Amino acid sequence: MTQTKDINPILKQVLELGPTLAFFFIYLRIKDDVFAIGGTEYSGFIISALIFVPILLVAMGILWMLTGKLSRLQIFTAFIVIFFGGLTAYFNDKRFFMMKTTLVYGTFCVLLGFGLLRGKSYLAYILNDMLPMEQEGWMILTRRLCGCFAALAAANEYVWRTMSEEAWVKIETFGFPLALMAFLMMQFSLLQRFLIEPDADSAGKSED
Questions:
Q1: I need a surface site. Which of 1, 57, 87, 183 has the fewest CB within 10 A?
Q2: Is a pLDDT exceeding 50 seen at residue 1?
Q3: What angle do CA 32, 36, 37 make, to 5 degrees?
Q4: Which secondary-structure segment (H or E) carries 64?
Q5: How far is residue 97's CA from residue 91's CA, in Å, rounded to a whole number?
Q6: Whose CA is closest to 126, among 73, 179, 76?
Q7: Residues 6 or more apart from 34 whose CB is under 8 A from it?
Q8: Does the CA dihedral 127-75-60-51 come out positive or negative?
Q9: 3-class SS of residue 34
Q10: Which pLDDT tens digit goes with each residue over 172-194?
Q11: 3-class secondary-structure state, position 131
Q12: Cα four-point dihedral sign 81, 87, 92, 96
């Protein structure tokens, strides 16, 4: 069994968020440029997207070497980025890279929804060790997060189809992550009553 190692949380955040920020700043630098490669002209957006793929893979490789583990979520995200990055380059069409966000959020929505149909919370399977909570709380959070992912997927479709390229890049980099973070923070504050105090069981046992 591979042993998971703890690393500095700031370094972990840099490795997880760094590639997206790198894509953003590279795009701002070359967004108005056109690059001729192999007789084909590529926009600054597409070149930024293609540079983003190896940056993401390198960051994930470093994270794996330091921690000894990658989550299924990280592996899935990397696969989607590679797949749609390849389609973007092959067809020279930025829409493929923009659509990946819809697929990621949509897949999370479908997976959580499938669990709900079975009367289960897949979130609890993943996060219960880090955040002990009563089953009712997990079911409420799963339903709400399923709706949140559906809304984000729909929002991404609206943004890339109706707004400018630069607007999509800014919303993809900052808007969607901040919206998700704010949603989760609000949910955890509303679900405080379902949280299980870690010392409750041990205190009860010591009294016995």
A1: 1
A2: no
A3: 130
A4: helix 44-67
A5: 11
A6: 73
A7: 41, 42, 43, 44
A8: negative
A9: strand
A10: 999 999 999 999 888 887 788 87
A11: coil
A12: negative
User: DSSP string spanning 134-199?
Assistant: -HHHHHHHHHHHHHHHHHHHHHHHHHHHHS-HHHHHHIIIIIHHHHHHHHHHHHHHHTGGGBPPHH
Q: What is the pTM of this model?
A: 0.83
Q: Which of 126, 122, 145, 129 is nearest to 191 (CA)?
A: 145
Q: Mind listing the pLDDT tens digit for each residue in 78-103?
A: 899 999 999 999 999 999 999 999 99
Q: 3-state DSSP call for residue 36?
A: strand
Please give the structure tokens belonging to residue 155: 């929002």
Helix (H) or strand (E) holding 40: strand 40-43
